[in-house]
Amino acid sequence: MAKSNKNDSGSAGGGSKRGAAVASNVGVQAGQIGWALMLVAGIAAVGAFATLFAVWMRTKTPGSADQLRIAMDEYVAGRHEIAERLADSVAVDAEKQPELDHLRTFLLGASGLSQAIKIEDAQEMRKRIAETAPLLERLDKSGFPPGRSAEGRRLLGLALNAAGRFEDAIIPMEEAMEENPIYERELLLPLAAAKLRATGVKADRAMEDIGRFLSLPNLPKTLLDDAAILKARANTALGLWEGVGEALADVNPETHQDQRDLTLALSYIAQAREVLKEQAILAGSEERKVLPKGTQDDSEMPRREIPLVAKELLSEAISLMDELNHRNDLDWGATTKYLTGIAYRLAGRDKDALGVLASLRQNTKHPAEAVAAGIEEVELLAETGHFRDAVMAAKAIVRDTVDPIAFDPKWISLPEFRTRLENAAQVMLAGEGYEHAIEFAKILPPMVDPTEALRLEAVSYMDWAKSLEKSPRPPIPSEAAERLSQIRAKYRQAGTKYQQVAKLQFAEPEYIDLTWQAIDAYQAGRSYEESLALLDEYLTYEERSRRPRGLLAQGRALLSLDRPKEALRPLMDLIEEYPRDSLRYEARLLSAIARGELDEVELPRKLLEQNLEDEMLSPQSPVFRDSLFVLGELLYRKALRQHLEVTAPKTLVGRISPGDQPSSELSQALEANQEVLKLAIERLRQAQHRDRSYDNESRARRATYLFAEANRLASFWPSIQAADPDTIDTARRQKEKERKDYLNEAHTSFAALRKELASIVSERSELLPWEQAMLRNSFMGVADTLFELEEYGLAADAYQTASQEYLNEPLALEALLQQSRCYDQLGRTAEAKRIFQQASKVLDRLPVETEPTFAETTRYDRADWQSLLNWLQKT
């Protein structure tokens, strides 16, 4: 149709090109206008010519009002194309002449729709309706010309219904009949049909319209049969199966046999679907389970028992389709194949259903059946685990229906088509076909809103990452590291997609939630820089009650980027401004970690103890367990730092050792540090117990290691006290017992950890770097505690075990040197000397590649070890 010219928005210019064919400008002579219009009308439009002649005689140059009046005469006379062209040639200032603008818009819209609904080619009809309907939709809101509202809404309702916009068609048709009841005979059945197809509209409302239609007088038999067919379909929608047969009983078989059989078959299929649905509900499951990823063999498809009544109903439907096809296969072939495919699918005959549906999609020239069969095929392929095939089938039907405007709603509406495509993707996700779901999402536009397609991609990446997280951890550390990298990459990809969706939805209320989803995904993927860029935006627009999660995320990101001082600002804002928010516990935890990074101790300790002492925080929660471990580690590191400070060389003879008499000041410092160690030991004991209870074995091992080190460290002060000559015997024995108790705890923990880590080595043949370090230290820790317990024979054996375990590493030198010390204590001097020779050979064999590890695992570099061993062998 001719589109509205620019005068709709106030332009003073002329009409469109077709309007220019009628009159080149507003100021042409009257005779020129008359002859031009006569030519357009083919001279046969005598009424229009008479009107034009009268206008010419009266005004010489007809104005916009006169031209629109002429166009209205043509419209009323049924010459819609002429009326449209005449109206399109008129220039109207919408602001100065609103009445004329409304009239012109009505003529363009009504004439265009009147022509559109008569177009035989369904796709062309829908395209024309899509172009023209907005004109009358605009008038439906702003107001029709006087006396034209009922007619305009009638045309609008019929056109929208024909285009498949069933929900939008209902109100215009209802209002048209309310304003002018004469339209009931024409509109009641289309209205009922629209209500049956519209989403969310109950079928009983359609039944009321059918009843109103049947109450009209003097209805011809053909219309009565049409109403009966529609009534049968309404009964099907309502599940009133007996009413279907009753409605069809009086239908004339000569004129409506095909429609009757089709309606009956649809009813049988609906009944079977209802039976299967009830069976699924009773079984407590869906109609069909989704096959796991990778299942491709039909023999592996999960079968379900089909109730006999459902089998019989579906068999009846297939028989009716066969009869219908044999009567007239040219007209009904596509329809019968489509419904047969549905019946096969419901009957559990998946292979037969796929064969029929795929053949119909690929070979039919009927777009409606091709699309409907295609979506059934896509769903069935997805449900049976054939994800790749489902993607290819979806790509084909989206490609063939690339223009949503031309979509044929005969079997499914465009919204339903879009929804079912999206649901098929969800089936893939449920079956762990994440890669295929992402590919599927990319092919959906333009049939599916690009925003929704992007959202589906984001969800797919997010679910993929979560699935990888839940899967068993690979036993080999390198494989575990690769898995972790994959997980984080998927989270980052989800964040990118969510961010893209958020940009597209910037003006929508969900923009903030989408931004948060992007932030959450980025942080899960350790992309903290990207999350920080979004967090400023998020915190600017988010409502106050939901800001705590943003503040927490901001603090976490800054802390992870090694910016602890900056991280404290949002974290402390959360703690102080939202003292009752549940996120305050995690904010305290992160604040404590940040302050620990800044070498603070007392304030982070206070924050962590607040968490542990808060009755509202469950001891079973991850934050409670994290707080427990972090507090234990914080106390241990404080005690270790203090121990190194107070035991640094105070005199020329070196560090303080048992037998020395520390000053009063040093004694007070050691006593205070001992209290910190006791607290650290208790918290680490609790931490390892809780982490093992909740299967956090990795951190439980770290807690065990720190617990052992803390006990070993705690044995130092009692050893000093026990060796002090001024200590009375009772106190000396008590301190000696205390020292041994700490050392025994340390020895037991080191031994248990060594055994646990060694078993892991035997299972997966490889440890992570920090696990390797703990294992080395545990070998030495077992030996060192035995040495300090004066179990020199056992200690020598333990050092020997350590040296053999790390024979090709610098640590072997430390173990051998300590082994020689044990032999010295046992009076086995010759053996101690031999150990020095053995150590020299080990040093010579150590490859150059081990050079960096000397400083990491021993007290000297290679040259110093060489000098030391040479000196020891000479003495």
The 3D shape can be described as elongated
Given the helix and strand composition, which structural class is it?
A: mainly alpha
Describe the sheet with the most strands. none
Average pLDDT: 87
Discrete helix count: 40
Rg for CA atoms: 43 Å
- The tally of beta strands, per DSSP, is 0
- End-to-end span in angstroms? 111 Å
Q: In which range does the helix fraction lie?
A: over 70%
Beta content: under 5%
Low-confidence stretches: 1-59, 285-302
Describe the overall structure.
It is a single chain. The protein has 875 residues and is mainly alpha-helical. It has helices at residues 17-22, 30-40, 46-59, 64-76, 80-88, 98-116, 122-142, 149-162, 166-179, 184-197, 203-214, 221-238, 241-248, 253-283, 308-327, 329-346, 350-363, 367-383, 387-400, 414-430, 434-443, 450-470, 477-504, 511-524, 528-541, 547-560, 564-577, 584-597, 602-613, 622-646, 664-693, 697-714, 716-723, 729-764, 769-788, 792-805, 811-825, 829-845, 851-857, 862-874. It starts with 16 loop residues before the first helix and ends with a helix.
Structural topology:
Elements (H helix, E strand, L loop, with lengths): L16 H6 L7 H11 L5 H14 L4 H13 L3 H9 L9 H19 L5 H21 L6 H14 L3 H14 L4 H14 L5 H12 L6 H18 L2 H8 L4 H31 L24 H20 L1 H18 L3 H14 L3 H17 L3 H14 L13 H17 L3 H10 L6 H21 L6 H28 L6 H14 L3 H14 L5 H14 L3 H14 L6 H14 L4 H12 L8 H25 L17 H30 L3 H18 L1 H8 L5 H36 L4 H20 L3 H14 L5 H15 L3 H17 L5 H7 L4 H13 L1
Brief descriptors of the model:
875 residues; disordered N terminus; mainly alpha; elongated; single chain; 40 helices
